[in-house]
Amino acid sequence: MLDLDRLRALNTIAEYGSVSAAADVLGITTSAVSQQIAKLERETSSRLLERSGRGVRLTDAARLLVRHADRILALVAEAEADLEAQRGSVIGEIRIGTFATAARGLMPHVLRDVAGRHPQLTVQLHEADPRASVPQVLRGEFDLAVVQDWQNSPLPIPEGLQRAHLLDDPAEIALPDFHPLAGRDSLVFTELAEEKWIGAPPGDICHAWLAGTLRHGGVEPEIAHYASEYPTQLALVAAGIGIAVLPRLGRDLLPPGVLTIPVRPTLVRQLYAVWRTEAGRRPAVQAMVTALRAAAVGTVEETQVTYLPPPAHGPNGGR
Fold first, then answer.
1. Do 40 and 7 form a contact (C-beta atoms < 8 A)?
2. HSE (side-chain half, CA atoms, 13 Å) at 240
3. Which residues form the HTH lysR-type domain (predicted)?
């Protein structure tokens, strides 16, 4: 009898290329993953992994097993969803992947609401880039994910997943307060053609979006500095070495010396919840989507801030 946890461990190694990466994804130790594979090798009387540089390579037997494991794990997930739907109770555990600003600006409201309404449901939150979390939902590693879809950089949603729109999150341009454009009520992209930008690293969905949006607006971007976290980007903006795009969701207080200005046409990213089609029958998934939608309504109201230009005390502002 093949053990599901061991099949899942092999499947994750096949996807991520190493035992250590699989351990990170599964939330267990590297030793535990190795033990799972050793037991699976004894169960199947087959060698499954071979050393390949710093990683591992799947044997022919392992690749054969992975093809079956994909279908087996999908069937198990479908059976679990059917059983939970039949019971009609919001119980068990649900794993959610979400990107950083949604984890900060949306999920605290959701987790508090769900804990009060459904005390028998355990929710486990994982911070993950949408380009990683969508495949993880498809494989069943996450039950649900919150993802973002920027203008001019749509996020593909594979067959087998469903999605629900949560909110539209406007973004603005972050400038140092001594910037020549700092006193403006709004900006257009062509005014930013000569600026140096601070953006997310290549490979990040926000990087692709920034470059695509600026080119669409007739601006060839000069991205001078790369930083994954918005607080780091804003610290660089405050130092006067570039400008950045800043969404409203999950926004902390701006650091001294930084202000934001709307840009035309309006910059908007859309947030969605995504889940496997068969998992949509689970009361727990339905409850989470309901809580996400409710929290999104409140978050939209909280983030409708109005830009106020700085006091008219010269081009250097408070510096």
1. yes
2. 10
3. 2-59
- Torsion angle of C-alpha atoms 201, 203, 208, 210, degrees rounded to 10: -10
Please state the φ and ψ torsions of residue 182, each to the nearest 5 degrees.
-65, -25
Per-residue 3-state assignment (H helix, E strand, C coil) for 85-129:
HHHCCCCEEEEEEECHHHHHHCHHHHHHHHHHHCCCEEEEEEECC
pTM value?
A: 0.69
- What is the DSSP secondary-structure string of 19-36? HHHHHHHHTS-HHHHHHH
- Cβ(99)–Cβ(127) under 8 Å? yes
CB 136 within 8 Å of CB 145: yes
Q: Which two tokens stand for residue 218?
A: 């007739």
- At 231, phi and psi to the nearest 5? -55, -35
Domains and CATH numbers, the chain: 4-84 (1.10.10.10), 91-165+269-302 (3.40.190.10), 168-268 (3.40.190.10)
Phi, psi at residue 80, to the nearest 5°? -65, -40
pLDDT averaged over 10-residue windows placed end to end, the chain, 319 residues? 82 82 82 88 86 80 83 74 68 92 93 93 92 87 91 79 93 94 89 88 75 70 87 94 91 91 87 92 91 85 42 33
Write the CB contacts of 255 (distance below 8 Å, at least 6 apart in sequence): 231, 234, 235, 238
Which has the closest alpha carbon to 297: 144, 172, 165? Answer: 165
* Contacts of 1 by beta carbon, 8 Å cutoff, 6+ apart: 43
Residues 6+ apart with CB under 8 A from 78: 278
Collect all residues with Cβ–Cβ distance below 8 Å to 264 and sequence separation of at least 6: 186, 187, 188, 189
Helices 19-26 + 30-44 axis angle, to 10 = 110
283 CB-near residues (< 8 Å, 6+ apart): 84, 85, 87, 88, 89, 90
Instruction: Give the angle subtended at the CA of 198 by the CAs of 194 and 203, to the nearest 5°.
Output: 115
- Residue 275: phi and psi, rounded to 5, are -155, 160
